[in-house]
Each structure stands twice: as C-alpha cells, then as structure tokens.
Specification:
By secondary structure, the protein is α+β, with helices and mostly antiparallel strands. Helices cover 39% and strands 17% of the residues. It has 10 helices and 8 strands. The strands form 2 sheets. Strands 1-2-3-5-4 form a 5-stranded antiparallel β-sheet, with helices on one face. A 3-stranded antiparallel β-sheet has the order 6-7-8. A hairpin with a 5-residue loop joins β7 and β8. It is globular and about 55 Å long. Bound molecules: adenosine-5'-diphosphate. Adenosine-5'-diphosphate binds next to β1, β3, β5 and β6.
C-alpha cells in the first residue's frame, strides 16, 4: 500500500526546516493527524526510490522512544515523510534557559533508549542526534526522529547541510572516519549540555567570526561541561563520559543506562507532562511577543 499526496488535507504549518516545511496534515482515509516533512533534494528517481526502500524498515518497528513512521512518497524531487504528530514540537524550542536536572535525566533516558533501539533492533546508527531531532508531546513523552535509517537520505542531506551548529564528533571532523555509534554518543553529550544549560556550547558563527572557530574549538579545546552550580556531579560525569575525545573510551548505551545520573531518576515519576505544558506555553508567549 502506497500513500500519496491526494490522501492528505493541509491543516497548518508546524515549522520550517533546512530542506522544506513541516506541515500538520489530516490523512483522510484513516482520519489520522500526521506531521508531513518536506525534504527538497535534487535527486534522480533511482536515488529517491532507494530512499523510500530504505525508510521501509521503519514500518512495523516500534519503540516508545522513536517517532512513528507512517510512510513516505516523492513528488518531483521532494521526499514527503509522514510521521507521528508531536504536539509540543522539538526540544530546541522548548528548553528555554535550560531544563532542570530531573527533566534532563528523563529526556536523556528516552534519547538513550531510542538510540539503543535503533542500534540493537534496527541495526542502525542515528547520525543526526541534536535537540531539533527530539520531539515532545503534551503527554510528556519524548521521542527521537530517525531519518538515519536511510543512508542515501543522510548522504544527500549531508551534502547540502549548511547548519551553523555542529554536533559532529572531533574524530569525524579530523579524519572523516566512517560514522560509528560512538559519534552518536558524542552528539548525545553535546545535546544534553544544550538542553541543560539553554545554549549550544561552542562559538556560533556570526558576522565577526566564521564557522572555522567552532570547528577548531571542537577539535582543540577541552570538551564543554554542564554548569557546576546547577547540575550534580553524577550528571556532569555522565556528560564528560559521552564527550570523551577518544571515541573508543565512550560508554555503550547499556552502560549509559546503568549510570547513576539515569538510575537516580529512572523510577522517580518526574512530572514531564507538567514540564512540557509549561515550556510550550512559554514558547507560545515568546512567539506572541515577537509578532
Ligand atoms: P530541519 O531538521 O530541516 O531543521 P525540522 O525537522 O526541525 O527541520 O522541522 C522544523 C520544525 O517542524 C521543528 O522545529 C518542529 O517544531 C516541527 N516538527 C518537525 N517534526 C514534527 C512532528 N513530527 N510533529 C510536530 N512538529 C514537528
């Protein structure tokens, strides 16, 4: 069964990505609300078909920590990727001045379990772990977006990637080594710092400094850390292990799940629903003030 554009009714725009818009849509045959991500790529038909084939492994694979995939199709040279609608959006727009430790730990548990599912069940590495690719809903659930299952899609996106915040591990920048699961662990560590401190930890290019400053800092400087005045030793140690410059020394997902930072909050019933609702209201208020 193949879905196509005629089956969808546009509801509203959810956001603009680097490669196209994300829309909230109604899938008329099933009555399901979905998010439809447009990915504009200049690719030939055979590459587009390969992407659809690769995305197919997501069908029927389900994890509570991965955004559900409903199907994809292409029109001209755009890929349309239909997925579970997450009504609070991505974490980059929710973290504000930084999330408290208990919320951070709960988010981290979801991210690690999602990554572990991809690795162990789908036999895939994610390749694009960052707060924009982690979404929340009003039930307080946190889930990962996972385009990484399509190697072709990732390669096509990477070629055109012009993002100004790099989550790439130092070994990837220095030696262009093949992507490994350890590089995802680095990106996870960097994302945790951004979520906890409320900002991306490396210099961001502006009109005075180019992106080279960021790249040099990632390679030459000591890895960033969570602020000691707000975060426990356990959480800081967790991040330090993820951001070990030696990829071989970074922990596995199973080891990360056993770390005291996550163990402490595993059964703590953190009020994620309350946190998401407050963060979402703050996001709306900020957006209203701007307009
Ligand atoms: P890009 O990665 O190219 O920057 P995104 O995937 O981040 O594009 O999409 C842009 C915005 O669309 C996100 O910031 C998020 O708010 C929204 N969005 C993306 N996917 C979903 C989804 N499944 N449910 C709800 N909103 C989404």
């Amino acid at each position: 069964y193949k879905i196509n554009m005629e089956e969808f009714k546009y509801i509203e725009e959810l956001g603009k990505g680097q490669f196209g818009t994300v829309q909230k849509v109604l899938h008329m045959p099933t009555g399901a609300i979905m998010a439809m991500k447009e990915i504009r790529l200049e690719l030939d038909e055979s590459k587009l078909s390969q992407i659809l084939m690769e995305l197919d492994i997501l069908h029927g694979s389900n994890s509570a920590y991965i955004i559900e995939f409903y199907g994809a199709f292409f029109v001209e040279s755009c890929v349309y990727y239909c997925m579970e609608y997450m009504d609070a959006g991505s974490l980059d727009k929710l973290y504000g001045a930084g999330v408290p430790e208990d919320v951070l730990a709960t988010m981290t548990i979801s991210m690690v379990k999602g990554l572990q599912f991809m690795k162990d069940v789908l036999n895939k590495i994610h390749r694009d772990v960052k707060p924009t690719n982690v979404l929340a809903n009003m039930k307080g659930e946190i889930k990962l977006c996972d385009f990484g299952v399509s190697g072709q899609l990732i390669r096509s996106l990477a070629r055109t990637n012009v993002g100004c915040q790099s989550y790439m591990a130092p070994e990837r920048i220095e030696s262009q080594s093949t992507y490994t699961v350890q590089s995802d662990v680095w990106s996870l560590g960097l994302s945790i710092i951004e979520l906890g401190s409320g900002k991306y930890p490396y210099p961001i290019p502006d009109k005075h400094s180019g992106f080279l400053g960021q790249i040099i800092a990632i390679i030459n400087e000591d890895p960033p850390s969570l602020p000691a005045d707000k975060f426990s030793e356990d959480s800081r140690d967790f991040v330090a292990q993820c951001l070990n410059k030696d990829p071989q020394a970074r922990p596995t997902y199973a080891q990360l799940l056993e770390h005291p930072f996550l163990k402490t909050y595993e059964n703590a019933n953190v009020d994620m629903k309350g946190w998401v609702q407050k963060a979402y209201e703050a996001r709306l208020a900020a957006a209203n003030k701007r307009s």
